[in-house]
Design goal:
The relative contact order is 0.06. Helix 2 (33-42) packs parallel to helix 3 (59-66), helix 3 runs parallel beside helix 4 and helix 13 (316-333) packs across helix 14. This protein has 15 helices and 16 strands. It folds into 3 domains: 2-118, Rossmann fold (3-Layer(aba) Sandwich), CATH 3.40.50.2300; 126-257, Rossmann fold (3-Layer(aba) Sandwich), CATH 3.40.50; 276-437, Reverse transcriptase/Diguanylate cyclase domain (Alpha-Beta Plaits, 2-Layer Sandwich). It is α/β, with parallel strands linked by helices and 440 residues long. The chain is elongated, with a radius of gyration of 34 Å. It has helices spanning 10-22, 33-42, 59-66, 86-95, 106-118, 135-147, 158-164, 185-195, 213-222, 234-266, 276-292, 307-314, 316-333, 357-374, 398-414, and strands at 2-6, 26-30, 47-51, 77-80, 99-101, 126-131, 150-155, 172-176, 204-208, 226-229, 297-304, 339-342, 347-353, 383-389, 420-423, 434-437.
Length: 440
Amino acid sequence: MKVLFVDHSKVFRSVWERMVLHAGHEPLIASDGLTGLRLLDQQDVDFICVSLSLPDIDGIRFTRHVRTMPNARSIPIVLLTSAQDNQTRRRAFEAGATDICPKTGIEDLFNRAARMTSRDDQQLSGRVLYVEDSRTVFKVMTRLMEGMGLTVDHFVSATEAYKKFDDKHHDLVISDILVEGDMSGIALVSQLREQHPDKTRVPILAMSGMDDEIRRVELFRLGINDFITKPVIREEAAARIRNLIVQKQLFDKVQQQRIQLYEMAMTDPLTGLYNRNSLAEFASKITSAANRHDMDLSVVIIDLDHFKQINDEHGHLVGDQALASIGAMLTASCREEDFAVRFGGEEILLILPHCPLDVAEVRARQLRERIEKLRPAGIDVTASLGVSSRPPGRPIILEQLIRLADQAVYEAKSQGRNRVVVHRGLGWSNDPSPRAVSAA
């Protein structure tokens, strides 16, 4: 951006020039008002900073003259002065100044200049649902938004627009409050807010040719984010549209980052399965639901056989590849309600809601066969599996089922590995000892 700085002090001019150059912008420096006006007449400028006290014309007269120039009516102008009284402020704002700042805060002023101008030239990306029945206004607004890089879905009817709205694709809704058809723009706002109450996820910009304070208040109560009065001022509309879309997309980005951070905290990065943190968070909910509704709940523990030997012979990288392959296989074979956890180094825990013991036994047997046939990382891998289940009508805690399934795994290993053992404790029979299931 080009920044015009007008000040009689050589020191201030030098400091400002260095900051502008350091930020990668182009400084235009003038020591008096008339020189500044000549520069402004010759070049396009994005931001003006002028001292109230100048050797020829003061900053207020300079500002008033700038506002008469066709190419400078919308340029932000900040007046530098040590006088912060209300009379000076009033005169400055009446002349057309954007703001007044003390000369001692020049660094803060430069940062403000960057914020005022940096986003105006940046292209946006996004989709706008636009409701407008005036062809003239539609052309002006569509040309404006497409020039900002936005895609516009235009509708004359609010009813049709409501049917086509998609909160996953639309970044902004703009609607005139008086449009043709059965549904008004006000009704559209009401319907959208009923379905999508979060104003940060679905921003709405209302437009009207009637500058009625009571109606504006009603619209804000209904849930609009902003309001524009017709006839539209292009610069104002662009700024309001940009603010709403940038805020919405930043919020979406933060939400996505929160989801990713949560998944990172709850997921084992190697296998893609849940980790022990997630087990601690969800275990009580799973068992409480099973006890409250007398629901079937089974547990399977998968312990890869001789995994230390695999790491020693083939290296830890191959061992990691084997774990990753088995984790991907389990993810693909689990139901949506199943809960697969990397329980230890080579141990994987499956929590199976709505799954009775006999079904869990069948699934464990199928998983044992799949692991044996998988040959992850090109090596032979087998597993010993232990199964336990909640008996009907008996409250349990998940740790009980895990402990019994772990005992069943120990029994499977003692019987030669690569097999499934089912533990029928917790009241399934009078004999609490595990029952082996042949691997053949």
